[in-house]
Amino acid sequence: MSYYTRQIFTYSAVAFLNSALDDVETVEEFFAVVDEVAGEDKNLISLPFAIDFASELSVEKEKTAKDSENSIVILDAVGNRDRVFASDSRLWSYLSLVSLRPYIMERWPVKSGKDFREFARNRWMLTGANLSSRKLLRNGISRLWWIAYLTQDPELCGRFSRETGDPYAYTKWILAKQDRPQNLLENAIGWDQRVLFPMMDALISDDRIISAKEASKELARNVNLQAGFRCLDVLNDEQLGRYIEGFVVDIDK
User: Crossing angle for the helix pair 27-38 and 11-20, nearest 10 degrees?
Assistant: First the structure.
């Protein structure tokens, strides 16, 4: 099954759905409201391009097993859009609640005993403007696009990409562990690809560090602290790589 759309929600539609969550009692009632809203032209705006998912997103028993594969499919479908468009709550809410609902419901089901309303606001939709990196990395669809977008290396410029010959080598590595995207990308420094790639290289290259649960968290924390009072922009790529590798050595001590 493929998914195709040239439309997304309006801001007022997203706001209405966010409010509707407080008025419904069940998930089924909420999606009935979603279908009603999505069925009215006044709640939709047209895109100047198509979003075409040529292949179906899949989920296995181990929920994270297909994340890297799905992230590549989503990046390919949405395309390499500018960061403003890719931070739009209307886009990701529509894809999550309408176009890719079967995937969302399977990949991010509501756990027994949990309030589905707050869960829906975190994983199924996005609201508001000026969305933080943390929010974009919580939504079930936007998180995969952003991770693939930030870690893709089509020109094989990164060390790991060159070694593997795979433009998505970093994407697959970062999604292999759930804590990696959270630790490396949920901060401003992680969205600077000139810093992100050396951080990933430093972790990948050290066999003693790669499996350490806190390694990515500690590295991101140290680099963030240093970036607060040292201008990393003045370092060339080689200097920046050595500088970041030094933090991995310190973590390993």
Answer: 160
pTM of the predicted protein model: 0.91
pLDDT tens-digit series, residues 145-173: 999 999 999 999 999 999 999 999 999 99
Q: Is 226 exposed, middle or buried (0-12, 13-18, 19+ CB in 10 A)?
A: middle
Residue with tokens 């973590």: 251
pLDDT value of residue 63:
82
> What is the domain partition of the chain in residue ranges?
3-148, 153-252
Q: Is the pLDDT of residue 1 over 50?
A: no
